Amino acid sequence: MKLISWNVNGVRAIMKRGFFEFIAQTRADVYCFQEVKATGEQALKAAEELGVKWPKAYEQVWYPAQKAGYSGTAILTKPKPVSVTSGMGMNEHDSEGRVLTAEYDDFYVVNVYTPNAKNDLSRLDYRHKLWDPLFLKYLKKLESHKPVITCGDFNTAHKEIDLARPKANTKSAGFTPQEREGFDNYVSAGFIDAFREFEKGEGHYTWWSLRSGARERNVGWRIDYFLISPALRPRLKKAWILKDVMGTDHCPVGIELK
Questions:
Q1: Given 31, 132, 138, 153, which residue is catalytic?
Q2: Which of 60, 107, 184, 210 is most buried, most CB within 10 Å of its CB?
Q3: 63 an active-site residue?
Q4: Residue 113 appears among annotated catalytic residues
Q5: Does pTM top 0.90 for this prediction?
Q6: pLDDT per residue as tens digits for the range 83-94
Q7: Which domains does the chain have, with CATH numbers?
Q8: Which residues contact 232 (CB under 8 A, 6 or more apart)?
């Protein structure tokens, strides 16, 4: 079973940049998209205007933010989910369409678009004291029933190896001690960083600034992840980063399960 996650930074925009060709080429069983910035109806209309049809093999699940054109997540899935849940069941944290869960027979897939702390760190306290602990609690609640796969844009480079210039970014959003601690807590709770099970080296990133030719020079950050419950580790066949796939400032990441 192949799963792919990608922050598309606007699904209507990426349709003009090879989005459907990417799906046709990669043929994953489940796609998790973040920052879709659209409702399902808007995405369907945009595709129709381009003369393109969504792949019939996939069931679509959309979870837009209440604010138009902002945030939002979506899942495309070939296997029919047992159930689908939008949000974490907490109204005060669910208005931005950031957590979308598909339940399958033997595991959950949780698609997440973690809030950014913002350049001025004005949202760091919210992220550190509320979001990260509550999301971890949500994952562990699910895991009490069956194993969990969570994937998406976590907006954090976990360790120094996960960004090109760690020393220059210790006070930058995405690499503050508070955000890294939040990610440490996922790992301490047992969740496994799938990519690092196969690749221990540096230079592997999933996001690059659009300025100064950062992507061409590979001055990037690894902030998109697949985390899995320990019970799924024996089934983890491989994990990868599709760094050459363009279209947004992020690239897709994926895993394959036996």
A1: 153
A2: 107
A3: no
A4: yes
A5: yes
A6: 999 999 998 899
A7: 2-257 (3.60.10.10)
A8: 107, 147, 149, 257
